[in-house]
Structures are given as structure tokens and as C-alpha cells.
Design brief:
The structure is a single chain. By secondary structure, this protein is an all-alpha fold. The chain folds into 4 domains: about 110 residues; about 90 residues, Arc Repressor Mutant, subunit A, CATH 1.10.10; about 120 residues, no CATH class; about 70 residues, Serine Threonine Protein Phosphatase 5, Tetratricopeptide repeat. It is built from 21 helices and 4 strands. A hairpin with a 5-residue loop joins β2 and β3. α18 packs antiparallel against α19. The protein is globular and about 75 Å long. About 10% of the residues have low confidence.
Length: about 450
């Protein structure tokens, strides 16, 4: 028997990747348990693998999967006497079910809960990204439930053993179930506080794809694609939130440079050396449009902002949140025809605003790089040297890498070489290590 997947199996895989999040979310609305919802959705996938090769692909495959999964959910509820009351609340229509039509039971339940956003996907996003879970568990569960990725695919993306990812997902679902986390969108200030957790997870997934922390490859485009898809979905569900749009803008613009960030051999290409004609103009356009909407919303009276991990606060006119500010920095690069043409002074000003809103040593280091481009390497080196005492950067490879770059520009080549070698010893990514050692040997093409 040939091991080559049939066209039908390929179609099922493609449909599942697109529809998985919606199906899990729709079923979770009925059973109020994301772990159980995923199992029932997987049952529907198994049914598709059994029926579609024989009967053909349905005209609306997503609806077929949703209907089948909801039937599994209703069967589950019938078999458990504890859910009898829920049957009455849902107003089960047996005649409709016998006619193979699954009614949409959400209206009464949603009205009773009075959530200000009733979309199942939004509920699933907030549940999968619940702050009860570790950041790593949130990322794995989000990719599993919303991205439709298998544990094998997630493990491969993060360069981790499959059992490790499987355990994270199982424990995350158990934690949510044991804590009786409600399947709903939090309201008011709680929603603003929880939104930071959601944005953090999407940002983490993208960053791990954009600049892998370990392994042999510098990029993992599949993670970037999934994060961008999640960001677009969230922006579609929360189109009036400037930080959600800010995150979408940031990821769109960053993703536009993906193909220019490596050469034909997969080696990193730094920003100064990238062929900007290879940047994706459509993604840049989408990112700039999302940023413009974020800026307009942020300028509205009464708009609110949130620093990561903190409660909401009143937003000053024209003020942007941390993701929108990072998007504005990315936009400065996207609009420039070259490094020399970049408005570095504006980037420094944006980093100043970002450091006030969400201070961190990494942001301070990035600001120092911009200062070096705007005002010269000597001014930047003074800032970088001051950061050397920060324990958070003790094992951060880009601190000595930046210092080496600045020392080289100042003609202090022996010291620069030592810094690049130190940076190479700290990184866990093979491509980064090779690049840093090349620079230590003086092979930097610049």
C-alpha cells in the first residue's frame, strides 16, 4: 500500500487547519470544557477521514465537521445525567436532530451570560491564553486548539520532544478544568488585563519563528504564519482595540522581511544588508493600514491602554500601547529605502515612549542601537556599557554583539573581536553562532 497521502486526505488536512479553531470553539460553547471540546472535534476529524474518501468531500466541509462535532457533543451530554439540566437550558430539539440538523443553541445561553462579545473564537482565545497557565503552555495550547496543529508539528516548530509538548497540552487542559475556568470572554477591566496575556502568547509564537532561540535554523516560517493568522483573527474580532491592531501591524510589517532575512544557504542577513526589493509590499501595506487604524483609535477620547502584565489605564491623546509603538518603529524601517534613509531620531523617540510605558533592559538595548545610528557609536557605547551591570542581560548574547559592533565602528577591533566571540558562546542558535564568529574573524561583509 502506498504511503503517499490521497488527495482527499490532503483536502481534509487543509480544511482542518482552517476550521479547527472554529469547531473547537463551537463545541466548547456547548460542553464548557476546552479539553473535552477538542476530543469531540477530533472525533469529527476521524469521522471525516472515514467517510470522505468513500462518500466524497461535502459541499461545505467546514459545516460538515461542525455539525458532526456538535452531534458528538450532544451525545456526550445525553450520556451524563449531570447534564440533564443543561439539556433543558439548551432547548434540545430532537426532531431537528433526527433530521440531521443541529440547531444553534448559543442564543439563550449567550444572552444569559451577557458577554459583550459573543464570538466563540474569542472565548477560545481567552481561555487558551488564561494566565493560570505558563507562557509555554499557553503557546502550545493555542497552537493546538486554534491553529489545528498536531503535537508533532508543535514539537517540531519549538525543537522539543513530542512527549514534552503533549504533556504541556494535557496539563494545561487539566489545569483549566480543575480551576473551572469559564468558557467566556472576561468583561470590563478584567478583559483588558487578560488581553495582555493573549497578545503576549501571539507575540511569543511569532518571535520564536522570526528569530529562533535555538537549533540549526534562524527562521521557522510556520510559526510566523500561525501567529500572523491568530493576530488577524483577533483583530477581526476586536477591531476597536488599538493594541490588538498594533500587534497585527507589527507582525504584518515584520513578516514582510522574512524572505530577505536569510540567503540561499539559510544564513542570516542583517537589516543593513537586506535587499529591500524582496520585502513583501502587500504585507507592509496591510501593516501600515492596521497601524493607522490603531493610531486613530488611540487618539479618541477615553481610549485606554495597557502595559504588559498590568491593569488598564486612561490613554493620553495620541498615546500608543507597547505593541503599537513597536509597530511604529517597524514602520520607520518599512518606509525607508535604505539604512541611511531611515529616520533614526524618530526611532529613538519611539523607543523613549516605549521605555516609559513598558521598561525593560532589552528595549533599552534596542534604543542604544538606534542612538548609535542617529548620534554615533560613542554615544551608544556609553549606554550599552551601563546596561552591562543588569543581571537580566548577563547571558543575553545580543548585549556583547551590540557592544562588539559599536567597538568595531570606533576602530577598537581587538575588543570588538572578543565581544563577538563572547556573544557566539552565549547563543544557542547555530546560525547566530556562525554569524557572530564570522564577525569576530573580521569576515563581516560590511
Amino acid at each position: 500500500m502506498s504511503s503517499t497521502p490521497s488527495p482527499t486526505h490532503g483536502a481534509i488536512e487543509a480544511v482542518w487547519r482552517i476550521e479547527a479553531g472554529k469547531i473547537v470553539a463551537g463545541v466548547a460553547r456547548l460542553v464548557r470544557d476546552v479539553g473535552l471540546a477538542e476530543e469531540l472535534a477530533q472525533d469529527a476529524l476521524v469521522a471525516a477521514l472515514e467517510h470522505w474518501p468513500r462518500d466524497g468531500i461535502p459541499d461545505n466541509p467546514g459545516a460538515w465537521l461542525m455539525t458532526t462535532a456538535k452531534r458528538r457533543a450532544l451525545d456526550h451530554l445525553r450520556l451524563h445525567a449531570l447534564h440533564a439540566r443543561k439539556h433543558e437550558e439548551l432547548g434540545l430539539d430532537l426532531e431537528a436532530q433526527q433530521a440531521h440538523v443541529v440547531p444553534d443553541f448559543s442564543d439563550a445561553l449567550d444572552a444569559a451570560r451577557q458577554d459583550d462579545i459573543g464570538d466563540d473564537l474569542l472565548r477560545l482565545i481567552f481561555t487558551a491564553c488564561h494566565p493560570l497557565l505558563s507562557t509555554e503552555a499557553r503557546a502550545a495550547l493555542t497552537l493546538r486548539l486554534l491553529g489545528g496543529l498536531s503535537t508533532e508539528e508543535i514539537a517540531r516548530a519549538f525543537l522539543l520532544p513530542e512527549p514534552t509538548i503533549a504533556q504541556r497540552i494535557v496539563r494545561a487542559k487539566r489545569t483549566l478544568s480543575a480551576a473551572k475556568v469559564p468558557f467566556e470572554v472576561p468583561r470590563g477591566d478584567e478583559r483588558l488585563a487578560r488581553l495582555g496575556s493573549v497578545l503576549e502568547v501571539i507575540y511569543l509564537i511569532f518571535n520564536e519563528g522570526y528569530a529562533a532561540t535555538a537549533g540549526e535554523h534562524w527562521l521557522r516560517p510556520a510559526l510566523c504564519d500561525e501567529a500572523l493568522r491568530l493576530a488577524r483573527t483577533l483583530a477581526g474580532l476586536m477591531p476597536q482595540d488599538p493594541e490588538v491592531l498594533g500587534l497585527q501591524a507589527l507582525l504584518e510589517i515584520q513578516a514582510s522581511r522574512l524572505h530577505a532575512r536569510i540567503d540561499a544557504q539559510g544564513r542570516p542577513v542583517l537589516l543593513a544588508d537586506q535587499d529591500r526589493t524582496r520585502w513583501d509590499a502587500l504585507l507592509i501595506q496591510r501593516g501600515l493600514a492596521a497601524l493607522a487604524r490603531a493610531v486613530a483609535l488611540a487618539a479618541m477620547p477615553g481610549a485606554r491602554q495597557q502595559a504588559p502584565g498590568k491593569g488598564s489605564q486612561e490613554r493620553a491623546p495620541s498615546a500608543l500601547g507597547p505593541y503599537a509603538l513597536q509597530a511604529a518603529i517597524a514602520a520607520c524601517h518599512a518606509r525607508a529605502r535604505s539604512v541611511a534613509d531611515t529616520d533614526w531620531a524618530q526611532i529613538v523617540a519611539l523607543y523613549d515612549a516605549l521605555a516609559q510605558l513598558a521598561p525593560s533592559p532589552v528595549i533599552a538595548l534596542n534604543r542604544a542601537v538606534a542612538v548609535g545610528m542617529a548620534f554615533g557609536p560613542a554615544a551608544a557605547l556609553e549606554l550599552v556599557d551601563a546596561l552591562g551591570a543588569d543581571p537580566a542581560l548577563r547571558n543575553y548574547p545580543w548585549l556583547p554583539a551590540v557592544r562588539g559592533d559599536l567597538l568595531g565602528k570606533l576602530g577598537r577591533h581587538a575588543q570588538a573581536r572578543a565581544e563577538f566571540e563572547r556573544a557566539a558562546g552565549l547563543t544557542q542558535n547555530e546560525r547566530d553562532r556562525s554569524l557572530l564568529l564570522e564577525r569576530a574573524r573580521g569576515d563581516d561583509p560590511r
